[in-house]
Design brief:
heterodimer, A: 120 residues, four-stranded antiparallel sheet, 11 strands, 0% helix, globular, B: 111 residues, mainly beta, five-stranded antiparallel sheet
Chain lengths: 120, 111
């Protein structure tokens, strides 16, 4: 099956610093990748959708200047949390699909293992 | 968007059968997913339903009724490792193929 990796799996940083999280599709070309945030006992909240070679589409309420997303290749997307603050502490999960056509039935999202971010 | 409702928590006994329900409201249904998520880990895909009926896959089955806006995930022969959160996710047709996730149902399996 399709494998998606994330790095790092966990990170602790000081308030005000920036943190970069990588998401890679290991055995398929991911034309579309998604970034989610999940707080304890809460659902997955979609932050943004990124298509390879184009700007990410952010969900309402997500600051694009704070959460920088780059999808430079068909196998790599990065999320950079700039000037992180304690309220940004969360579980960040990426997922990927291998097709980008809208409304495509049956497209399955394959999730990475997640990155636990703790901002002190 | 979609209103997705699942029970918050369920408990069951090892070896038993448990049914996790999911109801949803959407303007244009385009598929329902079930995912399993263990604590501190990312979700893993379990099933996908787009037509009415039951989809069986080993110990897990998923049912869909589009007219009722209702789905359930059925887990048979429960094992301790089935203790996890089960997420229902619904996709609509409003130009987006990205599903919206429910809050998840935390299933606790005890001996």
């Amino acid at each position: 099956g399709a494998v998606v990796s994330q790095h790092p799996s966990w990170v602790i940083c000081k308030s005000g610093t920036s943190v970069k999280i990588e998401c890679r599709s290991l055995d398929f070309q991911a034309t579309t990748m998604f970034w989610y945030r999940q707080f304890p006992k809460q659902s997955l909240m979609l932050m943004a959708t990124s298509n390879e070679g184009s700007k990410a589409t952010y969900e309402q309420g997500v600051e694009k200047d704070k959460f920088l997303i780059n999808h430079a290749s068909l196998t790599l997307s990065t999320l950079t949390v700039t000037s992180a603050h304690p309220e940004d502490s969360s579980f960040y999960i990426c997922s990927a699909t291998s097709r980008a056509s809208r409304g495509a039935v049956g497209d399955t999202q394959y999730f990475g293992p997640g990155t636990r971010l703790t901002v002190l | 968007g979609q209103n997705i409702d699942q029970p918050t928590e369920m408990t069951a006994t090892e070896g038993a059968i448990v049914q996790i329900n999911c109801t949803y409201q959407t303007s244009g249904f385009n598929g329902l997913f079930w995912y399993q998520q263990h604590a501190g880990e990312a979700p893993t895909f379990l099933s996908y339903n787009v037509l009415d009926g039951l989809e069986e896959k080993g110990r897990f089955s998923s049912f869909l009724s589009r007219s009722k806006g209702y789905s359930y995930l059925l887990l048979k022969e429960l094992q301790m490792k089935d203790s996890a959160s089960y997420l229902c996710a619904v996709r609509d047709q409003r130009g987006s193929y990205i599903p919206t996730f429910g809050r998840g149902t935390s299933l606790i399996v005890h001996p």
